[in-house]
């Protein structure tokens, strides 16, 4: 596995977590909206039969935040490695 693929994988993970946070925010913002369907953050599909549980949404938000941070650290490490490789190549 090369540095570029590691960075792409981390970037994909960050995008996934961003989508999850968006779905969670929509669920929480529309809790009291009549006829609103809950969006499952994992599959991003609407589920009309399920009500929004604030505690579960907060838990999912924290999980998404931690996953985003982990992917960001991997991405930064990959960027640092890429920069180091480029400086070695120039010398």
Automatic annotation (TrEMBL):
GO CC term (a single one): bacterial-type flagellum basal body
Keywords linked to the UniProt accession: Cell projection, Cilium, Flagellum
Compartments in which it is found: Bacterial flagellum basal body
Domain of life (superkingdom): Bacteria
Domain Flagellar basal body rod protein N-terminal positions: 7-35
Main location: other
Protein name: Flagellar basal-body rod protein FlgC
The species this protein was found in: Rhizobium sullae
